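The instructor's notes for this session suggest beginning with a concrete chain rather than abstract definitions. Hand out the sequence below and ask the class to guess, before any prediction is shown, which regions might be ordered.
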Amino acid sequence: MKGGNRVIEIFFNEPIDAAYVYERLQKRLKKQSRPYFLRKHKTNTILITFPQNTEDLIKGILVPTLVQFILLRKEDKWMQSILHTSFFYEEDEQHQIIPIAQSLLRGTRRSVPNQKKIRRSKILVTNALFQYLKDGISFSFESFITFRLKEYYKQLAYVCEIAIDEYKLENEYQNLIENLRQQVLKSDSLIPNVHIVYDGKFTVYDHLLLPLSRERLKEYGKLVENREYIDNELIVPLAAIAPKRIHLYTSTVDLALIVTLQNIFQERVLIHTLQEFSQEKSK
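After discussion, reveal the predicted structure:
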């Protein structure tokens, strides 16, 4: 320490990591009004000389830069490693599972029951860095990862586990959709056109606009060999009926069952407004 200046020194195992952090620190520090001195020592060490108290530098510049580095450059790689070493997934499947894991970490996959147990990566890493940097301002980044990110790394493993379950469920869903789609393509239409009204509940009508009762739909459903599906009241009976056209009257298409219907029947599904069904009936 000279003239009240403080030096922060960070060691990296990989020169490419040091270069990445150095470049981003440069951009952040250029916006500072107070004088600073930033340099790289050899290829894997960053030194920052900053006057007076370093608390503002640590909180406002260093920690956000390192958090960004970990989340953008390391997180996916660490999850790939977990998927490979703990669960034996190869690279092609890793690339399919990691986006699911990321949606869990961001909190955007609300259908998962355990979503609330997952803490934000940014909070975990930020807290760990603040705690770590209280002990000193000269440190090895790899030591920080090894000894202070255990809680965060444990969460990544937990998230990978949930993501794998979701990945398996999605694969099962896609296989089932494809099986039902093939069945529809191979089957003769028992009813040429079907009309479905969704106004909070689904009501099915035949080509003459006569309602099809639940009992009758269930009878049709029994014609489908593989009925292991979440919805046996609508999707499976329709797969058995295999209509050439499905006229769906609804005010929303943002519904899982409607998306599934479109995935199976594709261009056979025509979307209409609820008012159009009233007009159709009055003809």
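Then share the key points. The longest strand covers residues 5-11. Residues 150-186 form the longest helix (37 residues).
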